[in-house]
Each structure stands twice: as structure tokens, then as C-alpha cells.
Amino acid sequence: MSLAESPAAALAAPAWRLGPGERTALVVVLAGLVSALLAPLLPWVAAWPDAWVLPVTERVGSGLGWFLDLIKPAARLVSGALAWPMAGTTWLLAEAPWPLAFGGFVALGLWVGGPWMAALTVASLGFVLASGYWTESMNTLALVAVSVPLALALGLGIGVLAFEMRRIRAALQTVLDIMQTVPTFAYLTPLLVLFGFGPVVGLIASAIYAAPPMARNVLLGLERVDPEIREAARMIGTSRWQRIVEIDIPAAMGQILVGVNQCVMAALSMVIIAAVIGGFDDIGWTVLLTMRKAWFGQALLAGMVIVVFAMLIDRMSAALAEPERRGDPRIARAVLGVSVLAGLVSWTTGIIPGAAEIDLLDPVAAYVDAGLTEFTKANGAALDQVKNTAMFYGLLPLRIGLDDAVLPFTWGFTWDRGMSAWLLGLAGAGAALMLWRGWLVAATVLLAGTAVMLVGITQLPWPAVVVAAAALGWRAGGWGLAAFAGLSFLAMAAAGLWDRAMLSIYLSGAAVLICACVGGALGLLAAVSPLAWRVLRPVCDTLQTIPLFVFLIPMLMFFQIGEFSALLAICAYAVVPMIRYTRHGIVSTPADLVEAATASGATRWQMLRDVRIPYAAPSMLLGLNQTILYAFAMLVIAALIGTTGLGQAIYIALGKADLGLGVSAGAAMALLALIADRLVQGFAAERRRALGL
Amino acid sequence: MTNAAGAAPAIACEDLWMVFGERARRQLDSARSGGGSPARIAGRLHDQGLIPAVRGISFDVKAGELFVVMGLSGSGKSTVIRCLSRLLEPTAGAVRIAGEDIIAAPPRRMVALRRRKMGMVFQHFGLFPHMTVAENVAYPLKVQGQPAAARAARALEVIELVGLAGREGAYPRELSGGQRQRVGIARSLAVDPEIWFLDEPFSALDPLIRRQLQDEFLRLQSGLRKSIVFITHDIAEALKLADRIAIMRDGEIVQIGTPAEIVLHPADDYVAEFARDIPRGKMMTVASIMQPVGAGGEGGGEDCRGPALATAMSLDDALATCAADLSPHRVTDGDGRVVGTMRPDDLVRALGAVAP
User: Fold this and answer.
1) Looking at per-residue confidence, does B72 or A56 come out higher?
2) Of B326 and B225, which is predicted with more confidence?
3) B184 neighbors B175 (Cβ within 8 angstroms)
4) Co-location of B138 and B287 in the same domain
């Protein structure tokens, strides 16, 4: 960065000596220019020729199929073994009289978090019971209850192993990264082949999906234990096992319990996603079913049940980490006793109505349905207007370029070559002006942005994309990342997934752009105004606890199936980290910096622009990183309501149990996420170094 | 000292090297085959991208001796104590505890040694946050396999020894820094070890608390007579506590000597620079510069006048006494026996070097 160089060095260096940023910019512009010039002459530059597509997906499919057949007996053994605890838990929660489970949870809430938690439990479960989805919810919960111990054990094992064996730590970290970036649906296809239809697939998938957050927190907790504590334990003469069990893990317990919380939430989220397989009467399936039938009142009600559930589980597992909130165990035991008694009474006498007979909230659902029909009838035109405007003037040009998107019946005129020339000329003039001021990188960004708008993301010539990805990789992380990024894109092209990958990049790119602007602005607002943060904070908390699935319901209600609904759902989910990290970065500017700036006479605005925002830049970049990963995660889920691209491919593959397509598309998705992650992390690390953090 | 002449020292450290980096052992061997001083060898290692933190140091600690290793940050003193306790595996050299080379000892033997013979106190206390004071102190006994009642009784005993009676049920987070280090000391003494390692035990404390704990530490040691290696970066602390001091710089020992030797005869400018900052009048005692009475009783103070000085008197106090009468003074020990004479010009010379 030119910022980091001293002015004297900058003056002394000859003008033609370019920094790494400038060199990257030049390479990108050159690659774009050459591809644009060659594309009309050489058809293989414009689009990856079909003849070059290798039968990768088929090979992956047959290879994996062979392997899965090999281990299938073992897998069936596992699913057979899991059937027992599964049946027991399902009976206890869903089939036994509801007062038993209800009272059991209240007792648990009372013990974990005191009277307030007990009250919250009563209110939440009361709502679930009244909604008429008690049995479905308890089926879901039974899956979670069996998968969480598996995930916890797996995560604890991986975390401790990664800490104790320094040599394999880096490798394990990479495995964790991959486990978390492989899209959720992509897990399901191989598991489906392996375990066959049934709840075990969701069980195993959620155990795999929920283990990494636990492992990460265990590792983080162990790393944060004061090394002197470990040295003290060694000097006392503990064996390794003694040290791990009696000292390390208890000393890291605070962080480990944070991991437990994240693990439980991830397990719940995955169990609900796994409902798309079907075959199990759980709450996720209910949402899916009612959504497909367009019973939005019921879908919303079931969605609310999931949200209430997620919040309850979140608060309860978070309270685990606060031992001072424990309630009186004697009262908890008494509540448990009463509930067992009530369960027995209900079972023998039938005085208490069964869960299936309770449907107090059905009128509400019907009312919502009627209201919604009313609303769409009245405002359907306005909603369509919003949707079409966004599609025609925003999404479509980004996707296929101005030259194809501008049509007489939307824009009122036809785009011709002259206009392209004008636009490019204008951008060129702007770039020249920037060059004259010495802003080479900015000039490139302007030129590249204009070119993308003109051609559209999905129609960019592939050599330009590959070179640009590699160049950015080189800039952010050196030759290794450059090779990784470039080769990944080439591999996607060779596997015949290029078009789908570019569609995914386009939609998630649009969502990330919106999130960066909106989230950045909201984060800034929340940093400046405590009132705004007081309003935003619970909204952010809620959005982060809601399982991905539920985001689709309201979007679907108002905007039907399509890319626009998907975009909204992605934005709603992915905007949160951007808000949080931006605010956090700006608020946590060290006091002495602020005081120094104040002492220099900086105004509020100057302080924000010159001190706080530069200081917050690394944090904001990490927020952007999270936003990108969130957007990718949601992109796949949004395939349920109609997106094209890799997510759709994974979803289709799941429906057909097509191993090759599902795994290849999942891998492509994971590669895109990993590349984006490494790029942004690289830039963030560089900013941190420049700031000396 | 109590041990007979010829018996092995409590701790012997022989040509100890600690080099951080890839393939450190082989690199050290090849660097040493080139010969030359430790500094030359270290230079070669440095060029290879390795970090030679401890460079061929040797010293002995006698039984019951309080041996202080003093150096600034980065001098390698913390690495030395971690090599002695084998928390780090030294790259080369030997550490003998009562004659046994512990660097060569198998892991099982090392565990046994730590359970029975060694105690260690840490700069930031290293207390187990999930255990109470009593549980922290009793934990080494639990690891030894003692029954619960016995370890509770012993823990209470040690807790009383360090003046924390009544706080057994508190958690470390509820204690002040000084109290925490008392727990650290109690825990390290619970198994009554012969060897006591203290890694900057008082550096994280406020000056007032630090002085208080230093005094109590001296009181404890006068009763316990452990063989101690004590690390500090504070020359005043070193001079106050030590029987002998080793001064470290850049991974080497620059000088080993008694506090008086360090102050009065610094080996080089580096040590002298430390000694310069010392308020000698306060830190040094009459005993360190008096002319001792010979074995035959000569120099018994025939020409002395004025009141006698005590051996434990600080030089400042001695000066105040001598200022009235500039002639030699008798020096008596605690029992009132005449053990030496103090000539005013020695006194002035010792103090004079302080003046800038």
C-alpha cells in the first residue's frame, strides 16, 4: 500500500516503479482488454467450449458411489445403532403425554437460568402447544437432542486433538473451514445414498455440521488458557490426560460453553434444513409443505414456532455459561415430579387433552391467510412494481449486461454500440482523470466496474475472470492463493459448472454489495447513535438466531417465487455481520487516539473520516467476510424458492440423489466461499499490519 | 552450608544451550563444530535464522542456597528456568539435580521428580481458575495420590504458613494480586519440595506488596532452607534476596557473585551500569565491606574508637555513626562479638562510587 510507505521513499522512487496494488490493477485491465478484443475473433475466449468440458461430475459420481457402496454396511450399522436412542427420545418427547416434556423443559429452564428462564420456557412452549405443532416440534427436538451429543463429542475431540498436536493443527483447521463452507444441502446427497431415506440422514448431517463451531471454540478456549496455568500443571507432575481433563478443559470452560451454544444452534438449523429430504414428520417439513401449498398463514405459524424454539434453545444454552444464574435445584426437581405425575394422570385418565387436539391458533392462521390475500389483492400491483423495477434496472443489467438488458419495453429504448462507446469513453475519461491524480487502482476499479455493467457478470469472458481472480489472490495472499484461485476457476469451467458458478457469483455479489452498503451505513449509524443501536441490536440478535429456512416465508408471501425473493432473503440474513463488525470497529477505536484527534481540533466528521473509519477498516473487512460466507450459505437455501446457479444444481441433485452433480456443485460452492474468505482475510490482515495491530 | 564438601550441588547446570527454530539440534552441532566463543556460535546460528536464547551457560546451586538469576527482558533468564525445570527441552547441555541428569531422564521419571522434588512459582501466578484456594493448594497432593483428608490437612497447614488462613474457600478471581501469589507459593510448597523455582514471582505486584512479600519470602526461606533458583529483572530485589547472583545478558552469564561482589567488583561495564543505579547506602550492609577479624584475632579493633557498628547495619546508618568520628570502628555481630573493623575511607569509597 502506498499509505504504508514513507513520503520520502515515495518521492525517491521513480514514477514507473509500481506497487503490488498497481501491478494487480494493470494485470486485470490488460486481461480484460485482451479478452474483449479477442472474444469476437476467437469463440473459445468468449465462452468455455463444450468440447473442453471433462466428465468430472460423472467421474466424481461413479467414484464416490463405489466408495459409498463400500462403506454402506458400516453406515447401516451406525444408523441401526442410532435408531435406538432416536426411538427413545422421540417417544419421550413426542409420543409420551405432553405434560411430561413440557414440565421437564420448565424444570430444566428453572435450573439453568432461574425463574425468568422458567417463565420464558412456559411462554414459548405454551405458544408451541397452542399452535398445534407440538408433535412436529418435538420430533425436530428429538433429532437435535440426539445429534447434539454426537456433535459435542466430535467437536471436543477435534478441538483437543488440534490443540495437543501442533503438527496437524493447520490441517485440522482447513478441514473445519471446508466442513463449514460446504453448503448444507451438499452434505445431504452422499448421506442420503449412504443411509437411505429417513431421519438418520438429518441426524448425521447436523452432527457433522454442528461439530466445527464446537471444535473451534474448544481450540480457541484452550489457546486462551494462560500458558503459566498449563506450566503449573506440568510442574505439579500431572500426566497429559490429567492435565487435559482436570486443568485445561475446566479452565477453558467459558469459551467451550459458547461453543456448546453455537453447536446447538447449528444442529437445530441443520435439522430443519434436512427436512427437505422428507420422510419425517418434523417442523421443517411442515413449513416446506405449507409453503408449497401456499398456506401462508400456517407456514408463518410453523415458522414462528421454529423461531420461538430457536430463541428458547439459544437463551437456555447461553445461560449454561453463566453459573450464577442457576435456579434452586430442589424446586426444579419438584416441577419435574409434578410433570411426571401430570403425564401419568393424562395417560391413565385422559383428562388432559392430547397435543394433537389443541389448535388454539388456527383462527389466527386463517386470519393471516385472509389478510394476506386481501393485502396482495390491494397492493399486488405496487409489489410487482417494486420487484420489476429492481429486476429490470438492477439485477438484470448486472446479470447479462446493459447491452442485453436494455430493451424498448423496459427502458424505453434499445442499447446500441454507440452507447457502449459513449459509456466506455466516459469511464475512460474518468479513469484518465484519476490516473492524472495518481489513483491507478481507483481508475482500474472504475474501468472494470463499467465493463462488468456493460457485459454482465454471467457473460464475462472466462480468461479475464480467471486472470482477475488469480491477480487478486496474488495481491491478497501471494503466489499460493493466486494459484488456488486461478486453478479453482479453471476447474469449475472444466467440470462444466462455469455458467452456474457465475450465476451464483452474480446473485451473491449483488446481495453482498447491498449488504455492504446498507449494513455499513446501519453500522455507522449504530456507532454514532446509541439509540439506533438499542433498536438495531435486538433485530440483529433475532435475525441471527432464526434458522435460515424461515427467512424464505415472508419473502415468498409478498414476492412469490423468483430471484428477487431469494435476493431479499439473502440480504436479510447476510446484512447482520456487516452491521455488527462495522459498529464494533468504529466504537472500539482506542480512547487515546480519539483524545489525540480531539486535542488536534478534529470535528466530529473529521474524527470519523480520518481516525475512526481507518481504524475500523480491518474489522469492517472481517464483517464483509462474514457477510460473504452468510450470503453463500443462504444462496443454497434460497434455491428452494427459485434461484439458478450452483444452489439450484445442489438442490436438484438432492432430489434425484445424483451424487456426481451434488458433490461437484457443492465443492464448487465451497471453493468460491474459500476463495472469497481467503481474499478478504488477506486484505484484512494487511490492514491490521499497516495499523500495527 | 549443610552439605559436606564434595557432595553434588543441589542443581548443576552444564553448558546449557536453548536454540529455537527448525532442526535446532543439528544446526547447533554444526555451528559448534566451527569452534569459537558462545557469542560467535550464536552469531552463526542467528545467520541461519535461529534464535539462540540461552548460550552455553553453566552454574551450580548449593543445597539451601538462594540463587538469583537477574537479567533484563530478552536476556534468556525465563528460558533458563524453564530448561532447569524441563518445561522446555534444552537443545544441548545437562541439568543435574542431586547428581542426576534430568534432561536424559525418561518422561515417567520426570513426572515423579516433579511430584516429589520440585516446586515452581510463576510470574502471573498460574492458579487454576476453576479451583478454590484450598483446591489449588491441595492439587499437587491429589496428583501424588494422597487421600482427601490428608491433603486437606496439609493444604490448610501451608495456607496458614503463607498467611491466608480464612480464605480457603475463595476463588482466585476474588483475591488481590498479592494474595494470589501467596496461593501460588503455598501450592508450590505443598509437597515440601527440595528444589524451588521462582520465575519473577513478585514482578506483577505493586511496589508496597512486593516488598512485603519479599520480606515474608526471606522469613520463609530462613526456616525452610530450600535450594532456590529465583528469576528477577530487578537488581534491587536480587541484591536484597540473593546468596549469589548470576547476571545474564544476551543468553550468557556475565558474572556470578555475591551481592557485594556484584556491586563492588562488577565484571564489566554492563554490570557496573546496573550497580550504578543502586542506592548502595541503603542496599549494602556493613558486613560486605568491613575488614574481618583474622583467625588469630589480629585486627581486633585495638585502634578503634567510638560506638561499634553492627554487621547488619546499612552503609547509610554506618556513615551517620562514623561522621561524628573519622576513625576506624569496631564491627560486632548479632551476639555482640567483634567480627571486624570498618575504616571510614573504605566506607567513603564504597559509597563514593555511587555519586555521579
Assistant:
1) B72
2) B225
3) no
4) no
